[in-house]
Design brief:
With 256 residues, the protein is an alpha/beta fold. The chain contains 11 helices and 8 strands. It has a single domain, classed as TIM Barrel (Alpha-Beta Barrel), CATH 3.20.20.70. The structure holds 1,3-dihydroxyacetonephosphate. 1,3-dihydroxyacetonephosphate (13P) binds next to strand 8.
């Protein structure tokens, strides 16, 4: 079994629908100019699709990786507005799936997330599979059931190798963009449930290798207490990732 210490922390910036090609490249250059512990922490920038090319160019001489915020599972064809995994060749090494904004605002289902995750892995990219409960579900005490269902829908159909190569982001919907982060205890408990669910799907060794991030109002003020917790393998950062210095502070807090 891989020891938890063997998991390399990963901090990803989800810029959401912010920045175009020029200001995106400028932000990427500002991030790479920061003093980042890139030997210890994997860093991924996820710009909108129109910024993938310029951001990939801006970080091409650095270990900083690029990720897509969204992909479709088919490779090509009549799917207006969509982007496929093969179209990301040379631009992105990661792709986010299942973000709650896509689930809530664009009707992405668990089955869609499963198909997209499989397509991302088949194309040789690393998926960042986002899961998390809504405020209503949190209030009703349904967090464990929701996480089990969302995780099982995806990880039941992967192989143990695909599972180990994946990244999961635990993002409670009530913590996203609200300034109200989950407490370190809450995040750690939920991430433990997620890892147990992955183990039930693909075995404990694979579950011990999958990296599980926390996301939701991560900031320079709360990153130390969140990222120092055992089992929290990094962060998926929204708002604070639009500021290079703030994002760099979060990356530094992820050093084991
Ligand atoms: P915030 O960090 O702005 O809460 O966003 C979190 C998120 O949704 C990252 O994917």
């Amino acid at each position: 079994m891989t020891s938890p210490q063997a998991r390399r922390p990963i901090v990803a910036a989800n810029w959401k629908m912010n920045t175009g090609p020029d200001d995106g490249a400028q932000l990427a250059r500002a991030v790479s100019a920061e003093d980042l512990p890139l030997a210890q922490v994997e860093v991924v920038l996820c710009p909108p699709a129109t910024g993938l090319t310029s951001v990939a160019e801006a970080v091409e001489d650095s270990p900083i990786a690029v990720g897509a915020q969204h992909v479709y599972w088919e490779s090509s064809g009549a799917f207006t507005g969509e982007i496929s995994v093969p179209m990301l060749t040379g631009l992105a090494a990661y792709a986010i799936t299942g973000h709650s904004e896509r689930r809530q605002l664009f009707g992405e289902s668990d089955l869609d997330v499963r198909r997209k995750t499989l397509a991302i892995l088949s194309g040789g990219l690393t998926p960042i599979v986002a899961v998390g409960e809504s405020l209503d579900q949190w209030d009703a005490g349904e967090t464990l059931a929701v996480l089990r269902s969302q995780v099982t829908q995806v990880f039941d159909v992967l192989s143990p190798e695909q599972t180990a190569a994946s990244v999961i982001a635990y993002e409670p919907v009530w913590a996203i963009g609200t300034g109200r982060n989950a407490s370190p205890e809450q995040a750690q408990e939920a991430i433990g449930w997620i890892r147990d669910t992955v183990a039930a799907c693909q075995g404990r060794p694979a579950a011990e290798r999958v990296r599980i991030q926390y996301g939701g109002s991560v900031s320079p003020d709360n990153c130390d207490e969140l990222l120092s917790r055992d089992g929290i393998d990094g962060a998926l950062v929204g708002g604070a990732s639009l500021d290079a210095a703030q994002f760099a502070a979060i990356v530094r807090a992820a050093v084991p």
